[in-house]
Amino acid sequence: MLYSLKIIVGSKNPVKINAAKYIFAMYFPDHEIDCQGVDAPSNVPDQPIGEDETRIGAQNRVDYCKEHYQAHYYVAMEGGAEQFSYGPATFAYVVIDNALNQVVGRSSNLPLPQVLYNALLKGEELGDVMDKAFNTTNIKQKGGAIGLLTNNHATRESTYTQALTLAMAPFLHSELYSQTN
């Protein structure tokens, strides 16, 4: 008999829901995974700029889900961008919460062309900027900027999947992560 594991994702974007479902199915193969996406406000700008704003957006989404839904795990992913000393890049923060622990993880950076980052600073969202630059439609619910800029060798979903995979470590080895000495 399969045990059901309920996951609430703080977004209705199928890319984010699929990444979460994949991770939980991988880590809990003996469970039926009930993974649902819900509208959860980030309370940050639609295009977060900077690591703090991006991380806070993901945490706000998880906190909203915990307040409004009952689940075993709550998951949120927030994409952002920043001008680093070596150039602009986009990345994502992920937050996973199971009511006992909240873990924050981060994806790797994707270097962004300066011209695209400058458009973000003017208030545009990365998905819209990429759609204009590559003549695509709603790329943020497909491969994302990552897919376009890597010729689909990586995608938005694969980046979320990697970040979520790493963020699961404290849940898998809670006894080790709870030690302080």
UniProtKB/TrEMBL annotation:
EC number: 3.6.1.73
Catalytic activities: ITP + H2O = IDP + phosphate + H(+); XTP + H2O = XDP + phosphate + H(+)
UniProt domain Non-canonical purine NTP phosphatase/PRRC1: residue ranges: 10-172
Cofactor note: Binds 1 divalent metal cation per subunit; can use either Mg(2+) or Mn(2+).
Matching Pfam families: NTPase_I-T
Annotated transmembrane regions: none
Entry binding sites for Mg(2+): Q70
Keywords attached to this entry: Hydrolase, Magnesium, Manganese, Metal-binding, Nucleotide metabolism, Nucleotide-binding
Functional summary from the UniProt entry: Phosphatase that hydrolyzes non-canonical purine nucleotides such as XTP and ITP to their respective diphosphate derivatives. Probably excludes non-canonical purines from DNA/RNA precursor pool, thus preventing their incorporation into DNA/RNA and avoiding chromosomal lesions.
Protein name (Swiss-Prot/TrEMBL): Inosine/xanthosine triphosphatase
Source species: Pseudoalteromonas fuliginea
